[in-house]
């Protein structure tokens, strides 16, 4: 790899590739891949934070959607709400796998977090995931009083595919005159099925969401249907009216160029937008190497932006 990677992040990446040669994308069977991801996540779990209370709920359908609700223990009154959409290329990932991240948001921002268990491709191609995400958001806002959520302070948050789905959910809410979203935080979002950018052709052998894995995931998600602006938000013609947005991405991330372009389009559409591009960061680096100095900066910037959005 000739591209620059932050030295501390490189150590963690090499350790991952020793444990999983070629990365999880090198496992061709999607069921085996999901099992490997789940096992790796379970092996990395730490003791649950006692300051966060969890509750699993079911949103009545159709579609019927599972959610996990996180609330700071012992805190009463209406709190900001964060609607969390996990990553995984729309083909893997789960609420359980994202548990530590969702709990961290709850504890650090002091917000109620609702994490959605959306259906995955290829078994459930587009628009199943988006339908689930939108149904979960409308439930969260509709039941805000019972959840202890201030309905005027709701943010959408998601990494990777979750970031793309967060944008798509915000677009859907705008176009259907649905729930008001105060803030949008798509983290290195997966938003363009065309794979034509320089970075989408550059990241081929990193082992952290490479080009072949991305092409495969989009093929499974779209299942032969042409993509529109809800399936692949980079294709959306009109971005005006979206909530204030925070996007971050690394220079060694396949999604780098599509995310930078999208942030520029948001600004041109009059959407208040904060963009961070981190030299030497690859896809998911802050999760793989949480103690690295750059990872700490990345997470601190996100938490600060969420707190400012809610005050």
Structural descriptors:
20% strand, 311 residues, globular, 8 strands, alpha/beta, Rossmann fold, 8-stranded mixed sheet, 40% helix
What is the gist of this entry?
The protein is α/β, with parallel strands linked by helices and 311 residues long. The chain is built from eleven helices and eight strands.
CATH topology: Rossmann fold
Characterize the overall form. Answer: globular
Q: Work out the strand percent.
A: 15-25%
| Element order: H for helix, E for strand | HHEEEHEHHEHEHHEHEHH
Query: What is the first-to-last residue Cα distance?
Result: 43 Å
Mean pLDDT: 95
What class, by secondary structure content?
A: alpha/beta
Number of strands: 8
The share of residues in helices is 25-40%
What ranges have pLDDT less than 50 throughout 5 or more consecutive residues? none
Q: How many DSSP helices?
A: 11
CATH superfamily: Alpha/Beta hydrolase fold, catalytic domain
Tell me the name of the CATH class: Alpha Beta
Tally of distinct domains: 1
Outline the biggest β-sheet: 8 strands, mixed
Proper CATH architecture: 3-Layer(aba) Sandwich
């Amino acid at each position: 790899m000739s591209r620059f990677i932050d030295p501390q992040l490189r150590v963690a990446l090499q350790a991952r590739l020793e444990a999983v040669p070629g990365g999880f994308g090198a496992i061709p069977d999607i069921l085996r891949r999901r099992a490997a991801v789940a096992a790796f996540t379970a092996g990395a779990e730490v003791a649950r934070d006692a300051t966060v209370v969890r509750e699993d709920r079911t949103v009545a359908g159709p579609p019927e959607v599972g959610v996990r609700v996180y609330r700071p223990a012992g805190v009463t009154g209406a709190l900001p709400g964060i609607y969390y959409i996990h990553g995984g290329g729309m083909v893997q990932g789960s609420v359980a796998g994202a548990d530590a991240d969702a709990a961290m948001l709850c504890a650090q921002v002091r917000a109620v977090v609702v994490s959605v268990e959306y259906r995955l491709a290829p078994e459930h191609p587009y628009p199943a995931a988006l339908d689930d995400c939108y149904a979960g958001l409308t439930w969260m806002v509709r039941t805000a009083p019972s959840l202890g959520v201030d309905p005027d302070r709701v943010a959408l948050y998601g990494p990777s595919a979750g970031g793309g789905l967060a944008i798509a959910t915000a677009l859907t809410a705008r176009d259907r005159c649905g729930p008001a979203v105060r803030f949008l935080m798509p983290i290195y979002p997966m938003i363009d099925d065309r794979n034509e950018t320089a970075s989408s052709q550059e990241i081929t052998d990193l082992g952290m969401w490479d080009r072949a894995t991305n092409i495969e995931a989009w093929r499974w998600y779209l299942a032969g249907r042409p993509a529109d602006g809800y399936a692949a938000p980079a294709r959306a013609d009109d971005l005006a009216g979206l909530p204030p947005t925070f996007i971050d991405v690394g220079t060694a991330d396949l999604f780098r160029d599509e995310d930078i372009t999208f942030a520029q389009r948001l600004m041109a559409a009059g959407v208040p937008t904060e963009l961070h591009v981190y030299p030497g960061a690859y896809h998911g680096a802050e999760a793989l190497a949480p103690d690295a100095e750059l990872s700490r900066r990345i997470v601190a910037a996100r938490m600060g932006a969420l707190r400012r959005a809610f005050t």
